[in-house]
């Protein structure tokens, strides 16, 4: 027998069942005001769309074009557009025969059953007992699932037998999650064909015997037995999508994740990775959602030696591991607390095993590249109040890092209370404190020595806005601040205490000029800021711990102080002048630009050249952005000196046009903290060959050193029910024993066989 799948839309999975409970025990004719004279027992009674209450106690409604009852055989036959409704369940057929003697029901011709969840099953013929708990169907098919946005599956069988009310046995089975159109004669992207399958609704599992996986109608894999969760079921434990490939470091490798569903709010993924060059690695991914918060943790471990980019081993054979974890919990509606953990046994452990996640935010603040951060924190927020407190531990992964010289932050505190006086402006009262502690004296980038230091700061800031005259906007501001330090540089003199009192006052004035015309709005806004602050406040005894890397650019051009942290202070008189312009063309095109410069009363040797505040005049800073109908978006930031030579350029672009998707970032700086120039590009994109096939590329390139940090080239296929990607990857970075390496990875996912891309995790 040839099985054919109907052309059904793809949506998601559900339970294989034959829809209605108790069928009628008795059948009563429809009452009429004037009963007719008795008729022969085999007479046919014709009706049109008239409800025939088969069993009023169970609220079973039967509709048909014709009814026939044979009192001798106790057989009731309904034919022509037969419809049986039992509550929310319904069965349609060309003909239904009910035998009171054997208490069986037979439905014939275009049988369609819809259950209370909306799932639909089809058959040429169904024979079942009176309550539809058990029975037999021929040429059976069903759409399964469709809940909570899941993909819908399609199953067909030459026959289906239901026993014990929960067990369904199918013969000559085909299952797929792909949309199938019989008219086109095309095969689904993938299908699972089996000699026999069993669905046990108690276990909520579908098991197959002699199963063959077909891709585009071509058999590619045979297994004597296979099973996956019933798509109607909740999250289930089982295998997830594997990671397969070959690498110059690891050799051929296979990583197979397995999901353990511990509870509805808790799960664990265990992913052992086997490779030919090194010993097995086990990855763990744990998640637990609580009423008030969530814990997430990713880790791995192995027992192995160090190895280089070619898989050559050296050093001790010992336990090696990593752990990235975070948690966040609500104390009440205003207060939260949380933690973040980042740790690994070896500086290059994550690079050796291609472990991602180093730069993710896991708490109050994010770590710097190649630096791990463990933190414990609490926060509170109300409309006019904010508070945060945290403790931070760092682990350096760079070759030059010495952990004993990296400070432990314990604690860091910040609190702000805002007082709003309406038209009179706002006052923000702030408190900040921090303690830094090291095991060894460290030499800071500016040459200062530091062992331990602590600071407490109290400040108040005032600001308001007034519009006057022809539309001038005036924003006066003022702030006052007091710092108290305790500093230990590790010398014989021991700790020193000092304090300073700082203040700044000034104002900003702007004049927005607006021009409106048909299809275009233009706004040009000249802006000027002037302020005066406490001069000569940068004491060389105070170590610069929090303002080592900052830059005066277009984001802080008009701020009273371009320094956002505490250890450095921008004193004396300063001014900034610039122009901000925006053009809106229709609804789809927008252009904006800002250019300006900052002046200072005198140079301050406390600021380095990279800060753009070391001289009396800053470089020109500018930013431009263009949004072209969401098809192309381009933004650029510049920093130029007096002769307009570029000291820094940073360009971001994105495109979504025709078959092209991608984004890119290009940067170039004339000098880095090390004194050398730097230039690089990061970009990724895809070109769609058709609706399913695409070429993909991703590259991070250090142009200054003429080498790729990372390069990935691949081919991707994606449709409603499957995802395939094969990619070549090259890592060109060099760090101690690790140099360039290459890998080929293959990723595939077939939706419906145990869940989607996330494996059905919550």
Describe this structure in words.
This protein is an all-beta fold. It has a domain at about 45-235: lipopolysaccharide transport protein A fold, CATH 2.60.450. Helix content is about 0%, strand content about 60%. It contains one helix and 42 strands. The strands form two sheets. The chain has a 26-stranded antiparallel β-barrel. Strands 1-2-3-4-5-6-7-8-9-10-11-12 form a twelve-stranded antiparallel sheet, with no helix packed on it. The longest helix is centred in the middle third of the chain and has 4 residues, at about 350. It starts with about 45 loop residues before the first strand and ends in a 12-residue tail after the last strand. The model is unreliable at about 1-55 and about 755-760 (pLDDT under 50).
Question: In angstroms, what is the radius of gyration?
Answer: 36 Å
- Beta-sheet strand percentage? over 45%
The level-1 CATH class of the domain at 44-233: Mainly Beta
The SS-based structural class is mainly beta
The CATH level-2 architecture of the domain at 44-233 is identified as Sandwich
How much helicity do the residues have? Answer: under 10%
- Can you tell me the residue ranges where pLDDT is under 50 for at least 5 consecutive residues? 1-57, 754-762
CATH topology of the domain at 44-233: lipopolysaccharide transport protein A fold
**Number of helical runs?**
1
Give the integer mean of the pLDDT values.
Answer: 85
User: How many strands, what sense, and barrel or not for the largest sheet?
Assistant: 26 strands, antiparallel, barrel
């Amino acid at each position: 027998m040839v099985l054919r799948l109907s052309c059904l839309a793809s949506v998601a999975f559900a339970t294989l069942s034959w829809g209605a409970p108790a069928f009628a025990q008795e059948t009563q004719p429809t009452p009429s005001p004037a009963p007719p004279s008795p008729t022969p027992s085999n007479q046919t009674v014709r009706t049109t769309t008239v409800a025939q209450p088969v069993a009023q106690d169970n609220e079973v409604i039967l509709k048909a074009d014709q009814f026939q009852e044979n009192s001798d055989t106790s057989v009731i036959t309904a034919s022509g557009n037969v419809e049986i409704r039992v509550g929310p369940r319904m069965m349609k057929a060309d003909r239904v025969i009910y035998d009171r003697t054997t208490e069986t029901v037979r439905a014939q011709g275009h049988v369609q059953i819809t259950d209370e969840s909306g799932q639909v099953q089809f058959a040429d013929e169904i024979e079942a007992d009176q309550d539809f708990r058990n029975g037999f169907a021929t040429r059976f098919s069903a759409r399964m699932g469709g809940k909570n946005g899941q993909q819908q599956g399609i199953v067909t069988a030459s026959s289906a037998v239901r026993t014990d009310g929960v067990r369904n046995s199918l013969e000559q089975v085909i299952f797929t999650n792909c949309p199938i159109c019989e008219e086109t004669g095309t095969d689904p992207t993938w299908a699972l064909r089996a000699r026999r399958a069993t669905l046990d609704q108690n276990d909520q599992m579908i098991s197959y015997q002699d199963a063959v996986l077909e891709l585009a109608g071509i058999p590619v894999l045979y297994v004597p037995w296979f099973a996956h969760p019933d798509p109607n079921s909740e999250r289930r434990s089982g295998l997830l999508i594997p990671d397969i490939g070959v690498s110059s470091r690891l050799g051929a490798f296979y990583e197979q994740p397995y999901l353990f569903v511990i509870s509805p709010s808790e799960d664990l993924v265990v992913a052992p990775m086997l490779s030919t060059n090194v010993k097995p690695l086990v990855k763990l991914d744990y998640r637990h959602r609580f009423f008030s918060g969530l814990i997430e943790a990713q880790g791995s471990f192995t027992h192995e030696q160090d190895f280089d980019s070619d898989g050559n081993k050296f050093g001790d054979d010992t336990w090696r591991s990593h752990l990235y974890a975070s948690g966040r919990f609500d104390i009440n509606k205003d207060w939260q607390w949380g933690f973040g953990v980042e740790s690994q046994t070896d500086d290059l452990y994550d690079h050796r095993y291609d472990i991602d996640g180093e730069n993710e935010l896991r708490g109050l603040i994010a770590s710097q590249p190649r630096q791990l951060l463990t933190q414990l924190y609490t926060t509170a927020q109300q409309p006019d109040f904010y508070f945060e407190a945290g403790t931070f531990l760092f682990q350096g992964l760079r070759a030059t890092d010495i952990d004993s010289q990296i400070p432990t932050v314990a604690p860091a505190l910040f609190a702000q209370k805002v007082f709003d006086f309406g038209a009179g402006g706002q006052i923000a009262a702030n408190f900040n404190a921090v303690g830094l502690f090291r095991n060894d004296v460290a030499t800071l980038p500016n040459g200062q020595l530091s062992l331990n230091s602590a600071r407490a700061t109290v400040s108040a800031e005032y600001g308001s806005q007034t519009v006057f005259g022809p539309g001038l906007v005036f924003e006066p501001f003022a702030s006052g601040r007091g710092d108290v330090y305790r500093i230990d540089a590790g010398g014989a003199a021991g700790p020193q205490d000092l304090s300073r009192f700082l203040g700044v006052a000034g104002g900003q004035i702007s004049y927005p000029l607006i021009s409106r015309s048909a299809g275009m709005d233009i706004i040009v806004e000249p802006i000027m800021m002037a302020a005066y602050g406490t001069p000569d406040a940068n004491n060389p005894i105070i170590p610069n711990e929090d303002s080592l890397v900052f830059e005066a650019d277009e984001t802080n051009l008009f701020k009273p102080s371009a320094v956002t942290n505490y250890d450095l202070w921008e004193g004396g008189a300063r001014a900034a002048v610039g122009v901000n312009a925006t053009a809106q063309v229709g609804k789809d095109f927008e252009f904006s630009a800002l250019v300006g410069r900052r002046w200072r009363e005198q140079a301050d040797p406390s600021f380095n050249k990279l800060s753009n505040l070391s001289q009396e005049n800053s470089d020109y800073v500018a930013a431009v952005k263009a949004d072209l109908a969401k098809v192309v978006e381009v933004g650029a930031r510049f920093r130029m000196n007096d002769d307009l030579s570029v000291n820094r350029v940073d360009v971001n672009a994105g495109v979504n046009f025709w078959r092209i998707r991608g984004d890119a970032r290009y940067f170039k700086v004339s000098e880095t903290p090390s004194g050398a120039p730097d230039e690089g590009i990061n970009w990724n994109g895809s070109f769609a060959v058709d609706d399913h096939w695409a070429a993909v590329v991703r590259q991070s390139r250090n142009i200054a050193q003429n080498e790729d940090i990372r390069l990935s080239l691949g081919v991707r296929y994606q449709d409603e029910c499957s995802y395939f990607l094969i990619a070549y990857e090259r890592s060109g970075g060099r760090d101690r024993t690790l140099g360039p390496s290459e890998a080929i990875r293959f990723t595939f996912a077939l939706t419906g066989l145990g869940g989607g891309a996330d494996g059905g995790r919550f």
